[in-house]
Backbone:
């Protein structure tokens, strides 16, 4: 079978390599920046104001610092050991136990703060493995139990920022999850980019209701009948008249890559594509932390 020729212009690398290399160096600073030492007491003062019962002993910035390292696959005992080593160098601050680290990280409410109010966004889904072992055994021996995987539905913008994610089991309905994310951020979204999986009348009807321009790849066997969605009928007709290449260029469909696929690629490359937690809800939290940590990495202060 002959090699398919890539259509479109050949990519030209215009990257500023000096700036790019400096950004990679800054990642090391991001992982090891104990800013919590400067804000420890003021943070605890705010956290414990009006609190009943046992006061907090460890600030939120400390937990976030550890959560980033946990997203890099450091286990809770290793994190305690790192803090112990730092404590010896920085005035012997109190070291949180690994069990408390586990509780605080799994209870951490992580949020994404993309502040673009007129966003072109893309939506897509990908999988996170629940273990880093056993793939060869499952491939070779059908008796090895299948453990499933975690599905992540991502909403991102053209700047490469994560707007939000929804995480569930492999049975998560990606189209329904995508519509939930769009509704949640409806005031910010102006254009929605999505692949052929989202060629669904419910998604088109939602876009019509929220006055969002849908840029959704149409399936090759799509009918031009309205069938409950007049907007989809219009989009199908336009898509077939232009053909995929002209449609993709006119609608800037290529922007979907930095919105979704580029983010998935970066998160898995930097923070790994598997989780180490055992319980399902902790698996979901660990997966979410990977995307949150990447979002923090993009916005280095």
Residues:
């Amino acid at each position: 079978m002959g090699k398919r020729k890539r259509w479109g212009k050949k990519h030209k690398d215009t990257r500023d390599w000096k700036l790019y290399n400096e950004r990679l160096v800054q990642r090391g600073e991001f992982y090891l920046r104990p800013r919590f030492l400067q804000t420890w007491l003021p943070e605890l003062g705010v956290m414990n104001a009006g609190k009943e019962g046992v006061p907090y002993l460890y600030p939120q910035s400390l937990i976030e610092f550890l959560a980033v390292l946990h997203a890099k696959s450091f286990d809770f005992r290793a994190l305690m050991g790192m803090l112990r080593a730092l404590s010896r160098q920085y005035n012997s601050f109190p070291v949180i136990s690994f069990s408390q680290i586990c509780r605080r990280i799994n209870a951490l409410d992580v949020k994404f703060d993309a502040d673009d109010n007129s966003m072109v966004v893309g939506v897509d889904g990908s999988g996170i493995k629940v273990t880093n072992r056993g793939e060869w055994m499952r491939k070779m021996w059908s008796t090895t139990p299948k453990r499933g995987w975690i599905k992540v539905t991502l909403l991102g913008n053209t700047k490469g920022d994560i707007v939000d994610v929804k995480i569930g089991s492999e049975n998560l309905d990606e189209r329904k999850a995508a519509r939930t994310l769009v509704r949640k951020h409806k005031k910010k979204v102006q254009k929605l980019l999505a692949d052929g999986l989202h060629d669904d009348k419910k998604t088109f009807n939602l876009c019509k209701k929220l006055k969002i321009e849908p840029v959704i790849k149409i399936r090759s066997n799509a009918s031009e009948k309205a069938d409950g969605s007049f907007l989809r009928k219009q989009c199908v007709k336009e898509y077939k008249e232009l053909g995929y290449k002209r449609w993709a260029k006119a609608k800037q469909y290529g922007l979907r890559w930095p919105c979704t696929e580029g983010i998935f690629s970066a998160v898995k490359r930097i923070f790994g594509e598997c989780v180490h937690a055992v319980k399902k809800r902790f698996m979901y939290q660990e997966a979410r932390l990977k995307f949150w940590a990447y979002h923090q990495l993009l916005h280095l202060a």
